[in-house]
Design brief:
34% of the residues lie in helices and 13% in strands. It is built from seven helices and five strands, in the order βαββαβαβαααα. A five-stranded parallel beta sheet has the order 2-1-3-4-5, sandwiched between helices. Helix 3 links the parallel strand 4 and strand 5. The protein is globular and about 45 Å long.
Amino acid sequence: MAVLRPFDKLPELNSATILLVGAEGGPQQQLAEAMLREKKDFNINIHLASSLPLPSERDHLRPRIDLIAFVIDIKSKYSLKNVQASLAYVDVRFFLGKVCFLVTGVGRANNCSVEMNAIWKLGEDYCSPVIFCELELEGIRVATAQRLLRMLQICAGRVPGVSALYFSLLMRNSAESNLRVMEVAGWLPASLCTLGSSASESCRTALIPPASVGLKLCTLQLTRDESQLDYSSILKTHSDSCKLGI
């Protein structure tokens, strides 16, 4: 059972591959179907796995994987433990922008079985963005599918001048204040917007509001003083986000 490596195979012409890793179930399958329904100018391959490692006997049939999305259900402690165990089978080079953590179930925080600090720490330890969503809601599922497709397009090298690492760092620069704005708007419960021990910690990534809202939040970056915002950073990061279509 081999470790997944990002560059051990040649890329396929006009195509990209994403691997969704997490407990098997309806939401994960529905997310894959939503990605397939979106309009795109390249072919996508979507592979679903409940955990890693993948069976080695089918490795010669498997295309090069451009992006790995680990799906964590905050209602299940097993879901987090499964992802943590699977990370041991991912080559370190994948964490240069080709991994993200997809956290579902945020609309039912009262039934949360996973400590949010554990999820924040996972994103920080592996230098990968954390995306919150609710895959059982169609509007958010479609928005999440669109976002993953854009990430996949960049990770597959189909956006000139933008590397997967740069894009990942841009996403991770989304700040705690983004979560606060979403909380005020009623998109996220307060329990998901708890700040870490210091405002200088790595910033968190929040989900774009549902497509029905018709808004994109500006990316805000906190200074060391949590009561003030670095507006120059806000404008620069928001400008970069608009250029990349996120």
